[in-house]
Amino acid sequence: MKEKIKEKFIEVYKMDIKPEELLDDSYLFGPDSVYGLDSMDVLVFINELKKEFGLEYSTLDTDSFMTINNIISFIEKQKKSESV
């Protein structure tokens, strides 16, 4: 799943980097992002992940999508709650 998320991030933002260059705990969005992506960019990425992983959510905390590890945690929690 991690590799798929990294590849999607690179694809969506047309970056010239390899998936292994994306650090799992680096901020992808916001003022601490080394990629220069902001709060509007995170919404675009969340929409892409929604399509890719079939995510459903009624409320959304964009902080859950700031790092690769946060994204994985969010998706795993959602998948667990769906199977219960």
From TrEMBL:
InterPro entries for this protein: ACP-like_sf (IPR036736), PP-bd_ACP (IPR009081)
Database matches in Pfam families: PP-binding (PF00550)
Carrier domain ranges (all copies): 1-79
Top-level division of the source organism's lineage: Bacteria
Protein name stated in the entry: Acyl carrier protein
Source organism per UniProt: Cytobacillus kochii
Highest classification ranks of the organism: Bacteria, Bacillati, Bacillota, Bacilli, Bacillales
